[in-house]
Amino acid sequence: MSKAVQRLRGKRVLITGASSGLGEQIAYEAARRGAVVIAAARREDRLLAVQEKCRELSNDEAFAYVLDVGDRMQVSKVLSRIIGEMDGTIDVLVNSAGFGLFEEALETSPNVTEEMFRVNVLGLIQITQRVVLEMKKRRRGHIINISSQAGKMATPKSAVYAGTKFAVRGFSNALRLELQPFGIYVTTVNPGPIATDFFQRADQDGSYLAKLKHWVLDPQQVAKSVVDCMLTRKREINLPRLMEVGARLYVLFPRLGDFLAGTIFDRK
Q1: Structural domain boundaries of the chain?
Q2: pLDDT of 33-48, one tens digit each?
Q3: Catalytic residue numbers, as ranges
Q4: Where does 3-241 sit in CATH, by number?
Q5: Rounded to an integer, what distance in angstroms lies between the CA atom of residue 190 and that of residue 146?
Q6: pLDDT tens digit sequence for 190-218
Q7: Rounded to whole angstroms, what are the CA distances from 86 to 52, 89, 131, 137, 248?
Q8: What gap in Å lies between CA 83 and CA 90, rounded to an integer?
């Protein structure tokens, strides 16, 4: 049995956005390694299917909770229920719930802007705060926040989405420092485009993934990288490498970075 499998066996892993996309694949990969998956998402039918598959993969229990991360009152109630039923023990929290919409900044409605920040940022912070309170009591745990390469280098038609992901990175970086004395790890995951149904809403004309071609990431491979880092001190996961190089150039050479963001990395 590998160390990665031994590390997760029997550990409780709470995943938001677990009914589809990257969150779903993270749930399956964690279950394959013997973790007890706690799946949370809005769509109950898909969530129950994920729960059943996790049980089959792990030969252990799995749990499902209907949760709209953007609903503050629901988050409070559901998190209290989860923590109560888990006796306060959540070993890993993966904040994977989120959405985007490819629109120019001036065309993005206030309602969409507010919803995106509530789901991508405020809900993530609220859930993290509640779970970390329990982790601090046991002086161990791991927070994994799914951000984006858009949180390192913004491109046209992603102003609001990029704003939410910059916020997630800033929150995660400060949280990492605050939680070090308590033995709690914080990892930020910054993937480029992943072949999931995220783009059914984000990309209205359906051409974005086709334009990117070989830059598009396989969700199962990204999930494997995320689960590999669970309960380790990994600071960041950055994929794909080419986009991460572009993000680093963006910081070191801002004018070149603007050129890359507006040309090579803009496929919307």
Answers
A1: 3-241
A2: 999 999 999 999 999 9
A3: 161
A4: 3.40.50.720
A5: 7
A6: 998 887 665 455 445 555 545 555 668 89
A7: 18, 6, 11, 14, 41
A8: 8
